[in-house]
Structures are given as C-alpha cells and as structure tokens.
Amino acid sequence: MAMCLGIVKSKKKTFLIASNCHPQTIDICQTRATGFDINVVVSAAKDFDYSSGDVCGVLVQYPGTEGEVLDYAEFVKDAHAHGVKVVMATDLLALTTLRPPGEIGADIAVGSAQREYKRLMPGRIIGVSVDSSGKPALRMAMQTREQHIRRDKATSNICTAQALLANMAAMYAVYHGPAGLKAIADRVHGLAGTFAHGLKKLGTVTVQELPYFDTVKITCADANAIAEEARKNEMNLRVVDANTITVAFDETTTLEDVDKLFKVFSGGKPVDFTAESIAPEVSSSIPPSLVRDSPYLTHPIFSMYHTEHELLRYLHKLQSKDLSLCHSMIPLGSCTMKLNATVEMMPVTDPKFANMHPFAPIDQAAGYHEMFDNLGDLLNTITGFDSFSLQPNAGASGEYAGLMVIRAYHKARGDHHRNVCIIPVSAHGTNPASAAMCGMKIVAVGTDAKGNINIEELRKAAEANKDNLSALMVTYPSTHGVYEEGIDEICRIIHENGGQVYMDGANMNAQVGLTSPGFIGADVCHLNLHKTFCIPHGGGGPGMGPIGVKKHLAPFLPSHPVIPTGGFPLPEKTDPLGSISAAPWGSALILPISYTYIAMMGSQGLTEASKIAILNANYMAKRLEKHYPVLFRGVNGTVAHEFIIDLRGFKATAGIEPEDVAKRLMDYGFHGPTMSWPVPGTLMIEPTESESKAELDRFCDALISIREEIAEVENGKADAHNNVLKGAPHPPQLLMGDAWTKPYSREYAAFPAAWLRGAKFWPTTCRVDNVYGDRNLICTLQQASQVAEEAAAATA
C-alpha cells in the first residue's frame, strides 16, 4: 500500500481492498493507512470504482480468505487501464500449482516481489556484487542502514526483519525442490478435493462451486454446531458466519483426518465410504486458465540437496561462513549481541509451543496465555509501566505502535491537530521514519558539544509547537552511549507543553534494575526482547518489540480482529488502534526465550547484568582511549553500556576509513562494530555483560594492533594505497593464489595476532565493491564468469 502511494508520489490517496482478503490483512492496512492519510475502501473486487481518479492501488488475495481461486487477468487489465497498481497477497505453496501473480500482471506480490519498483521496496534487498578479485559476493543493497541516511524519507522503518524464519522457509524449499513442492501441493489440493467430493455425497451441506486450492467453503444450517462437534474431535474449523464454515488442509493432514471430518459433518452417523475409497474419483478444481505451466525455483540449489544428509552438509557449509558468538564477541553498538543460553532456547522446539496456531481458540492455549500475562507483569515491573502489548514483532514495529497509541490518545481527547513529533538528531535512525509513517510532522533538535540533547533548543521547539505537540522520541541512555543528566527535565518540558514521551528501548540493557522508562518520565517505550532479553537476532531476526505504556495510554494498545487481545474499554467515540501485526501476539513462539531469561535471572541477576555491561564498556573505553579518541562521555567521565571511538582523523593522516578498520578486524577473527553511526567516521562498540575480561582484552588488543598498522601508513613504512588495511579482508583463495604482489607478507595478512594460530575464522570473500552492488541490483545469483565480465565492463 505504501509502495503504491510512493509510486504515484502521493498524488492519489485512495487504496481499494477486496473484501475476500484475510480480516487481519484488512485491519493492518486500515491501521497503517491512517498515518499515510490514505482513504481505504473495502468492497468486493468486482465493485471497485476508479471513477474518482484518486486510486493509487488495489489489494486482492489469491486464493481468497474463504478458499476461492478467482481469475484476475481481466481485473488487472482494467486496473492498469485506469492507471492503478495491483497488489496481490498470495500463498507460495499454491503458486506451485496456480498461475503466478507476475504472469497475471500484478505489479506487487506479497510473498515474492516484482523488480520494477525495487527502489521503493521497504526493508532490505540482498543483491549480487563482486569482490576485489572479481568473485561474486552477496551483500545488502541500498537499504543498508538506509533509515539513518534518509531518516523520515526512508522507504520503511524496518530494522529487525524475520530473516531467520525466512531461512527456515527457504530451506524447506531447498530440501523438497520444485518437484517435491509440487507433489505436496497436489496432495494438499487432492485432500481438499476429496473432502469436497465426500460432502457432496453426504448431501447434508452445500459446497462452494468456485475453484479452490486448499480451503473448502461450506454453507450449512448451523455452523457453530458443526464447529463444536469438530472441537470434540480435536479439530478447529473456521466459522465465517452462522451459516458458513471453511476447512483448510495442509501437508500434515491425512486421509484419516478427512474421514473424521466426514463423521463430523454427518452428525456423528456412520458414513458408507472412506476418503481413500473416493479419492480416485476426484479431479482438480482449478480451471486450465489458472494452472501454472512456467518453471520455478530454477536455481541449481533447489535441485541438489534432497536427502537429510545432503541438507545437513549444506547447512553446515553455510554455517561455516557465519562469524557468530561461537567464534568471538560481536561488538555491534546498539544491537546488544549477548549470550543466548541453551536452556532459554529449549522451549522453542517444544511441540506444545511450536505447533500452536496463532488463531487457536484462547481456551486451547491456556499455557501461552499464562505466559503472556506473567511476562507482561514482569516487563511492567522492570519498566515502571502499567500495561504491555506483545503484538509488535520488531523494534521498529514497536516504535510505530507506540506512536500510534499516542496518536489515538490525542484523538480521543479531541486533539486531532496534535501531529508534531520532536526528534533529536542523535535518535535512532528508525525514529524519524516511524514518525513519518504515523503522519507526524518532524521537528529536529540538535545536540551540544558533549553529544547530549540541547535542552534549551528542545524547550524552544516544544514551546513553539505547544498547540500541536504530539510526542518526543528519545533514546536513553543516548545513542551516543551516555546517560543524559537532563532526561527527567526533558520529559517535564514535553509534558508541560501537551506532548507525550516515547522512549526508544534499544538501550534498555543499561537501564534494567538501575532505573526505568516509567520512573524517568516516559509514557510509552518499546523493548527489543531480541536485544536486552536474549532472543537471538543475528542476520536480522526473529525480533519482538512489545510496548509498555502508562495507565492513561493502556486503552489504546493494539487490538486484533480475529482473536481478542484483552485490554481496556475505550472512551466513547474512540476508534480503536487496530492491528499492528497479523498475529495477535506477534512472534509468540520466541517469547518463552525472554520469559525464561527473566525468570532465571530474577531481580538481582538482571541488575547485575546491567552493571557488568556498563563495567565492560567502561573498561574497554579506558583501554582504548590512549589509542583512539573516545567521542562522548558523561559528566563523570564515564560511558554507559556502549561507547564511540573516533576514526575521522585517520582519513587525513593515513587515508584510512572506518570500513578499512572493520574489514581488517575480520582478519583478526572479529565482526566489526557498528560503523559510521550515529556519527559518521566512527565505530560504536557494545560489549554486553556476556563477555569475559579475556575476550574484551582480545578485542582491544586487535584494535590496538590495527592502530599500529595505521601508524605504519602515517609514518610512511606502509604504502598509503596498498597496505594491509586497504587489502583486508584476506580470504584463503587470495592468500593461496599463485601470485602475491602485495608489499606485506601473506603470513602477516592472515595471522596478525598470536591467538589466530590456534583458531582462525576465515573470511569467504575479498573486499566487496559497494558501489557496483548498489548500481547493479542483481537479485538472482548469476554465474561467476558473467558477474566478473559485467564488473570488468562497468570498470572500463
């Protein structure tokens, strides 16, 4: 929806949604539309009206929410004739059988993506670039920390994506391959067909005649009675209304399950046939015009690993390319890469958690709901808030949800005009993008020489906008890694001028047990459970960003159209906030990780963790200050849980950039810290409480050794353009090549520190060409020779 608006440059503000989309999809679009000032109209697709000339896009679902498969070919042509973009929400398994959205003419598919509008796509794109040896190299293109560069002009506020979950789905496709997936799809469709055929033989209900893939729609006299009978047989059916039921099948369904359904729909009476006996009579319900005949998953990887042993080896090969906490500390500032203990991870594989459907009836998920309640109470205690929503499933989603709660609160009080959001320039990069998505007008305030928010500038901004002030977005400790002494005064200033305080919870690892957002004066705060509370998130997921609020904001927390999330009665004439995520409690399966962590640590353990995280950061800052300037400190000369070292001077003295240092750290066996953010030309380091002094020293030793390498460039002992930093990283294929033309030795390139002799993590590529990757957005993996030829041609 946002892309459609961007494509027409916000000149058309109406978005049409087909009524046969999932209710949670419709609800999310309606929630998000308010921030963009989009007029959402929901109706049957056949009734879409383009006569206003104001329609930027339409959303249809394929197959529909009740299982119907419609031919959208003429619909798409009609939309395009009126200059309207078509978005199609789809089912990936169904597309192994059905004609895909791209062939029908859809402009954007949810579940896969067309490439024409790639520069307006939200989130991240992985493309193919080349390294300095001409070898293909995958890298994140365009959207790499895009929010921090474009701020409120960013295409999205996405920070943590669900990459781990996407990889699970990808490996499913790798293991089964195109033929295997087609077999699964045919079996699922066959089970649905057998069920529909059997119901027709029973004659007790009416089966929808439209084509379907995996979901059968049934009209009956009493849908609730049939659903109750199914529950007695441990099956949940979807009741659409009093006379309509839908039944969905998947790869876990068996013929025995279909027989149980026949018994349910016969009122418990014996059935004189079985699913197995009638299955041969069933034919596909999909018309020839909608049958897919084009190839898919054509990359060789999808046809190589079809046994468990082969897949195991492939996964281990991929794993060996990842530098993880198994190898060394990962000192990314603001990302809090701490220990994810094995015992915390155990519940994730428990079938009682893992096999629960997000829309399972509440009385069938009592254990989950007990955990939701307990976790919410624990988080309230930790943060000083009164209520929590567990729905936002990323930190950036939490930012958006928190601001929308503030927006709803103002509207309920009649303050519809309050739309100004004050954001310090030091705030996290997703903050301005989140505020823009909520339709807020952003007023930036600067920092003082010490990196703290300029309180007088903030006071003037708040007073100048007091009639329209909605919120302040603030991070504490600050993004610069210090405890701002004036944070309580900052909160008072905003409240005195009619605004609410949104606190970014990314730095909660320095607050837990020592202070809290509620105590400081914030009204709402999101928590990165995947940072402070131990959910693994390397590579971009999974994430959780629940929001805590003070009592006056609790009635405006996110709701859900399918499963009630509880909450409070809303004031009269108030529109509820609606859904932020498709599932009522976000990525609920990973919540046991944080719950286990908090329960095991207890109050004393959590407080101690915060203290150790702060101690570790200050120890590292003290060791490194003789070699690198430490950019910001608090009034006591200390930092919080992270700190920034300044590399800007080395560009003038040695031609060395932060990227050179980060890449050289790979040769030492470390992941680079956060680079050039929040201050360009710097590295931000966060050690967390999980690292021992020995590991902190090892990382400091690596940076000190790199400082000596920079000094060799500065004093002329090393070439300014051909030195060990500019050449980094040094993968085996470079070191073992027949020719070695560099002015430093292979041995020093590979083993600059003694500890590397015992265990060495080898980089897989040479320095990647960032400019080539951004200018040549290749989202499919080409042959190495083709990429090398294109790179050579581009250079020439």
TrEMBL record:
All copies of domain Glycine dehydrogenase C-terminal, residue ranges: 609-730
Residues recorded with modification N6-(pyridoxal phosphate)lysine: K531
Keyword entries, A-Z: Mitochondrion, Oxidoreductase, Pyridoxal phosphate, Transit peptide
Catalytic activity, EC: 1.4.4.2
Domain called Glycine cleavage system P-protein N-terminal: residue spans: 1-115, 116-265, 283-558
Cross-referenced CDD domains: GDC-P
A single cellular component GO annotation: glycine cleavage complex
GO molecular function, one term: pyridoxal phosphate binding
Record GO biological process: glycine decarboxylation via glycine cleavage system
InterPro entries named in the record: GcvP, GDC-P_C, GDC-P_N, GDC_P, PyrdxlP-dep_Trfase, PyrdxlP-dep_Trfase_major, PyrdxlP-dep_Trfase_small
Catalyzed reaction equations: N(6)-[(R)-lipoyl]-L-lysyl-[glycine-cleavage complex H protein] + glycine + H(+) = N(6)-[(R)-S(8)-aminomethyldihydrolipoyl]-L-lysyl-[glycine-cleavage complex H protein] + CO2
Subunit: Homodimer. The glycine cleavage system is composed of four proteins: P, T, L and H.
Family membership: Belongs to the GcvP family.
Name used for this protein in its record: Glycine cleavage system P protein
UniProt source species: Triticum turgidum subsp. durum
Lineage, opening ranks: Eukaryota, Viridiplantae, Streptophyta, Embryophyta, Tracheophyta
